[in-house]
Amino acid sequence: MSIIREYRPRHATPAVAIGNVKMGGGNPVVVQAMTDTDTADEVATAIQCAQLVSAGAEMVRITVNTPRAAQAVAGVRARLDDMGIDAPLIGDFHFNGHKLLPQYPACAAALAKYRINPGNVGRGDKHDAQFTILIEQALQHNKAVRIGVNWGSVDQELLATLMDENARSKQPQSAQVVLQQALVQSAVQSAQFAEQLGLAADKIVLSCKTSRIPDLLAVYRELAQTPYALHLGLTEAGMGLRAVAATASALGILLAEGIGDTIRASLTPPAGGDRAEEVQLCCALLQSMGLRAFAPQVTACPGCGRTTSDFFRRLAADIQTHISAKLPQWKEQHPGVENLTIAVMGCIVNGPGESRHADIGISLPGSGENPVAPVYIDGEKTTALKGEHIAEEFITLIEEYIARRF
User: Fold this and answer.
1) pLDDT, tens only, 247-272
2) Quick check: 311 and 332 in contact, CB under 8 A?
3) Residues 73, 38: Cα–Cα separation, whole Å
């Protein structure tokens, strides 16, 4: 049985410039998010954009669905600029983008990318004409376009044609396979049409989203054969742990196969929940896979019968809180600190080994062990802490290590 020892090489794509962010072309995988505010409310939308960027989003998508929303886009952009936030804004258009972009040129200029859903551009003869207007606006304003197909709004005319062809085939495929084909063909044919209209391949991003993992894997493996940058996302992932598990599983598989240039987690937050959780999930996924580093990583054991005290849990939480509070300052003063690894372990079984693997680690005493906590720095035991102030003393050692190394 063969063992995969490393990830596959990245899917080769052109570098797409979206504002000040570059994705594809070998650039790091970009994290993006989407607001859930009424875009017409400039203040609320700008505040949420800022929160998402603070959490780690490098691009933010906003809904542009009404004239009032389109009128507000330039104001949202200006408010972010006043806050010193230069993350690109992406406009999400459905049904009426061909009207809004020409009617509100300030909106078209303020956005860094337009998201177009081929299934919601228009039916029959209107489809090509309205799609053409959208691409002409992108050309006029020198903007990138994401052609984003979704299985909940796939082009029904294309799907019906493929279903009819499949029914006449001597070896018909399942309806699920035909749906996958419709998603891919809709995206690729739209991209090719956009190129015929003059939009260069390095201005095009494709996505084909489903809420079923097998479908998502199938369509993106097909899209990876195309010369376009790819946006990954499991659409309508749902709520809670199930949504986190499904999103991480789907995106993790594709990223390990070298597929994907930007990612978004479509989590449904609970009422009053934190929209930034979708950003935190994306950052954690990329960091856990070793593809990006956003913040120092804390390794902690889950606890067992040997760890009768909850002190190591509290210490791990305290360190995580300390990191979150100090990270903005650390990034300014100590470039590269996001690559730091810290271990907080609860007993002698794996504690010393894990602590040696980390940049700095502590192995707390478990049940029946000597009441001392050896500290390891760069793989070597340097000291042992004991008493009531282990937490404060270990945090001091972390601070000293950061100042010395970074």
Assistant:
1) 999 999 999 999 999 999 999 999 98
2) no
3) 11
